[in-house]
Specification:
The chain contains four helices and twelve strands, in the order E-H-E-E-E-E-H-E-H-E-H-E-E-E-E-E. By secondary structure, the chain is of the alpha/beta class. It has a single domain, classed as 3-Layer(aba) Sandwich (Rossmann fold), CATH 3.40.50.
């Protein structure tokens, strides 16, 4: 894959369970675009301020400056002079994020989106499945199962909270493989 859109934009989606390295991969791709002297920006939803309100931060503490936004429309408003747009935690955005990404790609921009594809129940999460269908490039990453060491595609919630969105990390979630994942009972 080329780094620079040449009269064409596209959408790259990086998805997977928690602790699979999605944000780390997003940061890596944006850093490479910066090395190529491209104008870059990363957005994250206002709800995600776990590590920083001014940076996207991976679980291993790798970070890049980012802009906190309330909704997906703000991404369009802030991206006109950018070549590469990064979007982290896409599952927390409204459904319009799909149209925003399409619009940016149609405007010859490279759009790199990272997010959880499934929630704590193992069900499709927010707009990420629709983004996966729109992706020109799709990478589904796996973590390591905290129970058995196999590749993990599930985010096991360790609390009894039943809301779909509960912000947390290793204190609330762990990566699990299909065999070790225990779907919460209703």
């Amino acid at each position: 894959m080329t780094l620079t859109p040449n009269n064409s934009g596209w959408i790259e989606v990086i998805c997977g369970s928690m602790f699979s390295g999605k944000t780390e991969e997003l940061i890596r791709r944006i850093r490479r675009a910066e090395i190529a002297k491209m104008n870059t920006i990363i957005f994250k939803p206002q709800i995600d301020d776990r590590y920083s309100s001014s940076h996207v931060v991976s679980h291993n503490q790798s970070k890049l400056a980012s802009k906190l936004v309330k909704n997906s429309q703000e991404i369009l408003d802030e991206s006109s002079k950018m070549d590469v747009i990064g979007i982290d935690e896409a599952q927390f955005f409204d459904d319009d994020i799909v149209k925003v990404c399409q619009s940016l790609a149609n405007d010859n921009k490279r759009v790199v989106v990272a997010g959880l594809d499934t929630d704590y129940l193992g069900k499709p999460f927010g707009p990420v499945p629709a983004l996966m269908c729109e992706a020109d490039y799709l990478d589904k990453l796996t973590a390591i199962c905290m129970q058995c060491g196999n590749p993990a595609s599930y985010s096991q919630r360790l609390t009894q909270d039943s809301e779909q969105v509960v912000i947390g990390e290793t204190d609330i979630y762990e990566a699990r493989c299909r065999n070790c994942f225990e779907a919460p009972k209703k």
